[in-house]
Write a structure and sequence with these properties.
The strands form six sheets. Strands 2-9-8-4-6 form a five-stranded mixed beta sheet, with no helix packed on it. The chain is 23% helix and 41% strand. The two termini are 68 Å apart. The chain has two helices and 26 strands. By secondary structure, it is an alpha+beta fold. A hairpin with a 2-residue loop joins strand 22 (397-403) and strand 23 (406-412).
Amino acid sequence: MGASTLLPAEQVAVEPGQTETCEVQVRNTGQVVDRFVLDVVGDATSWVTVEPSTLNLFPGETKTATVTFAPPRSPDVLAGEVGYAIRVMSSEDVEGSSVEEGTIEVLEYTEVAAELLPRTSRGSRRGKQQVAVDNKGNRDVAVTVRVFDPDDQLVGGTKTPTVVTAPGTATLVKLRVKPRKSFLRGPTKTLPYQVEVVPERGEQVVVDSAMVQDQILPKWLPAAMALAAAAVVALVVLWFSVFKPVVSSTARQVAQQENASLSSQVSEAKQEAAEAKQQVEAVTNPDGNAQGTQPGAGSGQDGSSDGDAQAGSDGDAATDGNGDANGNSSSSPSTSGSNAPNASSSSGGSSARDFRIQVDSAPGAVGTYTTNSYTSPDGKTLLITDLILENPSGDKGLLQIRRGTTVLFSFGLENFRDLDYHFVKPIEFKAGSPVVVAVSCQNTGTRCSPAAYFSGSAG
């Protein structure tokens, strides 16, 4: 036989940050003097100790050792029952060693902190901020976020005034404030207000903030209007000094050419009318000789004139035809479109990167997570600028965005169906560092299937 160990029957309750003790009895059940080594095993070895760690006992002798419980005030030590065990090892009879198990009840405590991102909002009609609610306690806590303005100059609030945060996580809540009065022009105004974060139990947290209210009309508008007016004046001056005289001169030249053409046509019509009048007078002359002579002379004259006119006409026509032919032959250079260069474009490889991670998780205990991840296959660094969270089934529980094992964001599933974030400074995942989505499903009977969509670039 070796040793027998006895712990108190009652459960030890301890508050994080405090210390509690109990005694463990060790009896030598062997036949020789023995040396016993005491140590702690289980989940609480980092904050449970036993003193002294060795006992020298005669046969049948019983001694006690003190077990000290000192859980730290940290979200890592969750509220509830924690198991531990005291192991007593015999130096003379190894098989006679014993292990006595016990439980500790870690009491609950609530500690909440809050921070505004950015600290001050700015706008002409409304301001946008995010409240980061940090749960530094050891249990889930529901908090209410509200805006308080003692001067009653603005109104504000959130779409989800009450959120549930998990221990050791930060939950982001969108906050909007709106001035009661706006103005078109004038100096900026500073409107102070307070953001109150009230947990269901514990002390509330008050964060001071302010909204910088700008004028509705942008400051660059007067300068732009003056520049536009100057451009209009310059165009008017340019029209009357340059473009209008050129247009008038061109119109005058066209009118003069039209007048010259009309004058030529009128002269030709007058000449044809005079010739027709002479022919009519010759036919109606009662003197036969004159009539016989006149027609002959007239015929000869007319024939000669007609012949000359015909010859001249034919010559002109021939000349015009040759001129046209020569003109067409010499003044028609080839302008085939096939000789023009072809336009082409090329685009380089894109560094854009987007992907979607969905987690199928069965209901489980609080703090139990199912994960899914994505790692850049080409070994490049991921720069995430856009994040969209999807919860179409209205699942309950917690969703975390991690960089490897580091938690970046934590969201309550019951607080959203679709939620999007856009980051001015990208979230960086270095080469080989996975993007992890973790889900703690708190549904009743049904599985959770939320997802997250990431967009950015890889380089």
